[in-house]
Amino acid sequence: MAAEIIPTDSTATDDLDPVFALHRGGKMEVRSTVPVRDRDDLSLAYTPGVARVCTAIAENPELVHDYTWVSNTVAVITDGTAVLGLGDIGPAASLPVMEGKAILFKEFAGIDAVPLALSCTDVDELVDTIARLAPSFGGINLEDISAPRCFEVERRLQERLDIPVFHDDQHGTAIVALAALRNAATVTGRQLRDLRAVISGAGAAGIAIAKILIEAGIGDLCVVDSRGIVHEGRDDLTPIKRLIAELTNKANLAGGIEVAMAGADVFLGVSAGKVPEEVVATMAPQAIIFAMANPNPEIEPDLAHKYAAVVATGRSDYPNQINNVLAFPGVFKGALSVRAKRITEGMKVAAAEALAAVVADELRPDHVIPSPFDVRVAPAVTKAVAEAARRDGVARI
Asked: Which residue of the set 101, 211, 241, 333 is catalytic?
């Protein structure tokens, strides 16, 4: 099939496609929060009055949280190397996604967010550039940076900075998946410790899901990449995969996806690799299938329902959507509200537990996770994350 040709005339494009019409001119703008109507206003908002505020912050840097936008502003930063399912499309082409993420911060948590697409992909350059931008923000949301570089970028930034750094492709997905899995286990009369899970995909999301499930007490799990089950006997593992091999696969399985899924209770797909029906059929009774690849799930929902008690996808046109917007607004709101130095594993698990609890009294197989438009979500996650930050000793207020 020939590729679709997009007209270069923007007006013609607007006429043909409402998506382009919505994006014309971008999806954001910057507005003042104070009036500038006359000389008196100008003297307060800018010179000479602003100098007094600058001097006060110079003498006490913590005042930047009180007298600038820092306390409620996040940078949404990418290098454009892993954008949605589009891959390495570069920084300019990534901007519509970064703008979209920024407006979701505002819509769901009242947080101001600034999209920044960087024209560098080297880890050292990314870390240095983001660190130099950091004084203008209360937190850093890393977005669409390809694995395995994303792990190193996040780790080094968090070591270097004293504000939250959060790679949403990893941790947002993991938080929502854990919340949905807790409730799916309840629907099927089990707890996390009763389940053996298989994660298809060892990229950013797969690794993060593995880590949070271990932290939350999953019975057992194994991770499968393009070469099969991640286990300690393999000699081709990256450092992060070697760590996962040490922490998972208590059954010492080796082989492909068909070995991993035989008798498994849970399938979590974040790879887009299709799973044949004959393999799905080998899962345990009352199976749970979260096939989250977008737009084409690893296991199509109709097929999944033949073998599973609970099915979730990453799509908005099916029930139980695993959508990161359920996590990141509240996570950052909670962290910013207590001026957290970083986002801990405890804060992530607390976010997942709070998210699961929102619909705990409403559970059924097609409703194990709230809708992104459920107004209870962000406040619940915010409160839980703030409390966890205090418990973990990373809150400053």
From this structure: 101
